Structure formats: C-alpha cells, structure tokens
Amino acid sequence: TRLTNSGANLTAFWDSSGRRIYYSSILSGIMDIHSIEVDGSGEGTLILHEPNASLFVTSMLRDGTIVCLYGIGSSDIGIIPPGDKTELKPILNKKNMELNGKISPDEHWLAYESNKEGQFEVYLCSYPNVEETNIKISVGGGHDPLWSIDGRELFYRSNDAVMAVSIETKPKLTAHKPVELFRDRYALLGDIVTWDINPKDGKFLMVKDYSGISGKEGATQPRINIILNWFEELKDRVPIE
Questions:
Q1: Which of 22, 126, 141, 175 supports an S-S bond with 133, CB 3.0-4.6 Å?
Q2: What are phi and psi of 209, to 5 degrees?
Q3: Cis bond leading into 128, ω under 30°?
Q4: Cα four-point dihedral sign 130, 136, 137, 138
C-alpha cells in the first residue's frame, strides 16, 4: 500500500505502537522528518525541519524518541525528543563523521559507524550518556550496525560479508571477536541503511545488488536479450519435414 504521494521519501521506521511510520522527505528542498498513519488516513505530518541540515531517521525508542543522522557534507547523530518534536539534540557530533545510530533492544546502548580512525568502523557506546563507555566493534572496516532481537549480538556489513559480534553488558561491556555469518552481494549505500531484521524470527531482509551500487567490482546487471528473426533461426535448427 502506497503511503506517500509527493517528494522523495526515504528511511521509514515504525513507532512502538505500530500505527505510525516516521520517514525522511525532501518536500522543502532538504530532507525533513515526517510521519504518517500506516492505514493511509490523513496526510504526512512534518515533525522537524532543520534549514541547514538534512535529517534521516535511523532508530526509534519506545517512548517516541527519534534517533537521526543529520548534516550536509558531514554527518552526526542526534535525537528528537518525544512529544513536541521541534528540537534536535546532538549526541555524537565530533570532528569526524558518525552515521547510522542504532539503539539496542534494552535502549541502554547505541551502535554507530564512524571514520574517526580513517576508514569507517562500527562502535558501541552507552546511552543516553554516550561519553561514559565507547568501544570499537568491527575489524578491518564496518558499516550499517544492526542489533539481534535479544540484544546479545551486533551485526554489521564488511564489504560483501555480514559479520556478527557477541555482546556482553555485565559486569562490563565486552565485545567478542567478529565472525562471518554469510557472504553475498547486497546493496550498501553508506548513509542510508539497506537491511533490517525480522523481530519475530531473526531473519535478515536485504536488497540484492545487481547494479554495482555498492561500488565493488564484478556486479552483473540484469539485461533483456532480443532475438531478431527468431522464426527463421527456428526453422534452421528444427527442419520441418
């Protein structure tokens, strides 16, 4: 069922009630955050407009807090408090770039990716006090962190591989060595997340990459072959007696 009818609309997230979807829309010439009823009733509602920053929803808390990526050229992570959503509060806005903040199921931890060491890696920090604890999760590059249903694992993308890291939070935050789950070519768009996990069975939902959009070599693009004079070729191959 189509919900939006104008503008370019991206990064849709359910709220905790399951009755509204929050998304980014470029109706005003820059990406703003809007919401709409999932039954299609009513028009999209503007949640927040920042005149100097595009906004992308990356996670939502049960109380309605929105975690978002914001910026132009560079990217940082902020939150939009519940209720009267008219203010963006930065929570990770260092000199480097921070992307794709994902809150853990217990809402005590924030996974994100950053280029503070050069290449993008996945990190994990405490929430809401992001300065209290911060550790590196990925090895050799990482993108698009995603939590398991129970919060005991953190998944991320590393080139064509999907990696898994076991997480322990007691007595202190501990991340075990990443292990490869599977490998294939799936879309990877940097600041727009292109995968998710089913909250019921834990299966991954991914976008198969046929176009080379991930920037890696060897992607094959689907094509349509047109055979001309096929009936003549058929007669040559299968003579009529």
A1: 126
A2: -95, 110
A3: yes
A4: positive
